[in-house]
Every structure is written in structure tokens, then in C-alpha cells.
Design a protein that fits this description.
Number of helices: 1
Protein name: Hsp20/alpha crystallin family protein
Shape: elongated
Domain SHSP: 1-113
Number of domains: 1
Radius of gyration: 24 Å
Largest sheet: 3 strands, antiparallel
Order of helices and strands: EEEEEHEEE
InterPro entries: A-crystallin/Hsp20_dom, HSP20-like_chaperone, Small_HSP
Organism: Waterburya agarophytonicola KI4
CATH topology: Immunoglobulin-like
Family: Belongs to the small heat shock protein (HSP20) family.
Strand content: 35-45%
Amino acid sequence: MFCSANLTKYVILKLEVTGMEADDLDIQVMADRVAIAGERKAEIKSEVNGNTRLSAEASFRTEFRYGKFQRVIPLPARIQNTDVTVEYKNGILNLTLPKSEAEKNKVVKVNLTEADS
């Protein structure tokens, strides 16, 4: 995750999710965290010497993790989750999360009266 929390108006979140289609991802953005879930499906067929085979027959070892996953990423600043932009290209997911405006301190007038002694 890359984040420049104190220098910009945005929190930038970059994630590697190679080998997945956009439809395989579920992204939920809250004010203080991002939840990402999905499923990386194993290849069923592959080509070996021009022959189509099941992956179990064609490969000795694979370095990919397959299956369902879920991750919750806490954010370093509160964000405005209704104005998020997302880009998914070449297995990299980029979320641009605009920071929410800091709540201004309200000035409250307090009426002071002396207590009778």
C-alpha cells in the first residue's frame, strides 16, 4: 500500500491483484477503512506442445495462490467515501480516496451565572 496521508488531499491505495477479472473483486469503502474480497480462480486448461491438458496434468509446480481472500485495510485518515475513483489495469488496482474535511470546532456560548452562597 502506498499512502501520502499528510501531504495531499487524497489517500492513494495501490494493490496487486494479478490474474483476476474486475468482476471477481468486491470493494467496500468506509470512512476509515477499505475492505477487499475476491476469488482467484485456478486455470483449468493449459497448452503443452500444442495439446490442451488439465493444469494438474501439465504443471509440476505453481507459484500462484488460488481461492477466496478478504482483507480490511485501515486508512491513515478519514475519507469521503462517496467520491472514490478506481482504476484496474494490468493486475494493479488503484483507489483514489479523497480525504474528508476536518470538522471545524464549533464555538459555543456558555451562560455563566454566579451561584448564591
